[in-house]
Amino acid sequence: MSRTPRLALATSSTGPEPAPAVLAMMAGLTGRKWRVQHFRSRAKPTNDGCVGQITGLPGRHLDAWLMRPEVCHAVFLRGCRHADLAIVEGTLDENAPPIDLRNPNRPGRLAPIADALGLPRIAVIPAQRPEAFHLPPLPEDLDAILLDGLDDPETFGCLRRIVEMLLKKPVIGAVESLPQAREALGSCEPIKVIGGLAALGESFLRFADLDAVRALAVSREMPDLPGEVPCLGVGGRRFRVAYAHDAAFGGYFPDTLETLEALGAELVEFSPLRDESLPDGADLVLIGCGTPELFADDLAENLSLIAALRSHVCRGRRIYSEGGGTAYLGRFLIVGGRRYPMAGIFPFDAELRANPTGPAPVTRTLSRPVWLGPRGTTVRGYRSGRWRLHPAPEADDCPARSGPLTASRDMYFRYNAVGSLIHLHLASLPEVVSAFAGTNRTLITHRAR
Known about the structure:
Blueprint: E1 6-10, H1 20-31, E2 36-40, H2 49-55, E3 60-61, H3 69-79, E4 85-90, H4 111-117, E5 121-126, E6 144-150, H5 156-167, E7 171-176, H6 179-184, H7 190-207, H8 210-217, E8 239-244, E9 249-251, H9 254-262, E10 265-270, E11 284-287, E12 289-290, H10 296-301, H11 303-314, E13 318-322, H12 324-328, E14 332-335, E15 338-341, E16 348-365, E17 378-391, E18 402-404, E19 411-414, E20 417-420, E21 422-423, H13 430-433
Parallel strand pairs: 1-4, 1-5, 2-3, 2-4, 5-6, 6-7, 8-10, 8-11, 11-13, 13-20, 14-16
Antiparallel strand pairs: 9-12, 14-15, 16-17, 17-21, 18-19, 19-20
Helix pairs in contact: 1-2, 1-7, 3-4
């Protein structure tokens, strides 16, 4: 067993995630040349910009609802292999909902992940005035405390003694309140964000016991794998995946592309906004989540790329899309009552909801066989709350070649194109993942008319 340097940071269940105190810790450690890898405790197909700005490493995700313990274990080890320290952020509040649709930026449940990975646990608690100090409800299995929102630096020593006396746990540091720096994190101006992060990082270093942080991070051995991780087909047939990546699209779980590479994929980017054709020899076209509503005119005007996508489907080749990518592949995009013609591959119109909600955890069963899996295949993921799909009034294909894949009509197919409003995490779906490499094909071929 190894002692992979790792910590769990328990923050408020009301969010936000990442919390300012966690950003401060990462900024301070990065300033001291530590390579820090951040993991959210709930999967999210888009990364938080602040994390990448601080660490230079893309934010990653663990998710006890999506991932079995052995998958969580493997995803974690793969994600932090180039880091000096891995930080997993979440809440230890047992009453926190699996996901809050009104506040999707709230942290996920940390305890199952911390148990699976043997993470030392640091609780982030408010730094109140010594004369009015009281402890919030805390679990007994904490290893250390980080004080957040320190108004008066002179009170740190007194607060540390109070906490350590009451909890018999060490205080490894503190972060000052710095209201202007915290407010800057929500700015649209990069200079202000960078300045706010720098101020918070300096504050963390002013009070941090880095030796204690380092010792705590390696204090536990990494548990053995709780079960076998399914083989991802390494060494199989090489295949080419063209994935959309530009200002309109790019919402992918980091592990999705890595899993495809492990399966033998050659990954090639393309842009539905700029490119007039698909990359040569693409076996699979991948169009992830995004904001096509912001670029609806440009997407509609790129008729050459739309023709290339249709031709790809007509030749019996595969497309897989999620969220905004699925909306783009429908007949029309409806935004604020205006209709924009889109790729016309799937038999529905996609309407942007006036009051979109956050992603919701769902489980779906395929009602018919497609290349993604046989009828009865069960998948789970997070359903986008941004789009409403309106089935086409007149079917343009035989029902055997086009239509919904689930009773909830949030997954569709046309020939070998599969579109979903559900964000899947491939590393969490060993029963499905090999289909992306073409090892479990159920292809529907036809001649172009």
